[in-house]
């Protein structure tokens, strides 16, 4: 399992912060996780696609949904 560092923009306060997404090299598909913003503490839902150990199509939305 490797980590893939991504910088995201908070859905609520628009501040940027870094998250570490765990990515298995053998996994391909869709995944979603909830990360609390380090500035305003609101939950951000991060949805992304993994293909060959690489993260793509990363979107950030309201984690309260």
Descriptive terms for the model:
65 residues, mainly beta, 3-stranded antiparallel beta sheet, two-stranded antiparallel ribbon
Task: Provide structural commentary.
The chain has strands at residues 2-9, 16-23, 29-36, 43-51, 54-62. With 65 residues, it is mostly beta strands. The chain has one domain (2-62). The strands form two sheets. The chain has a three-stranded antiparallel sheet with strand order 3-4-5, with no helix packed on it. A hairpin with a 2-residue loop joins strand 4 (43-51) and strand 5 (54-62). The model has no long low-confidence stretch (mean pLDDT 93).
Distance separating the two termini: 29 Å
Rg (C-alpha, Å)? 12 Å
Percent in strands: over 45%
User: Which stretches of 5+ consecutive residues score pLDDT under 50?
Assistant: none
What would the average pLDDT be, to the nearest integer?
Answer: 93
Main β-sheet, in a few words?
Answer: 3 strands, antiparallel
Strand order of the largest sheet: 3-4-5
H and E string: EEEEE
Structural class: mainly beta
Task: Give the beta-strand count.
Answer: 5
Give helix % range: under 10%
How would you summarize the topology of this molecule?
Layout: E1 2-9, E2 16-23, E3 29-36, E4 43-51, E5 54-62
Question: Outline of this structure?
Answer:
The protein has 65 residues and is an all-beta fold. The protein has strands at residues 2-9, 16-23, 29-36, 43-51, 54-62.
């Amino acid at each position: 399992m490797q980590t893939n560092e991504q910088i995201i923009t908070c859905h609520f306060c628009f501040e940027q912060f870094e998250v570490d997404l765990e990515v298995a090299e053998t996994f391909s598909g869709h995944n979603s996780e909830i990360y609390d913003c380090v500035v305003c503490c609101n939950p951000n839902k991060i949805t992304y696609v993994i293909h060959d150990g690489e993260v793509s199509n990363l979107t950030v939305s309201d984690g309260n949904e």
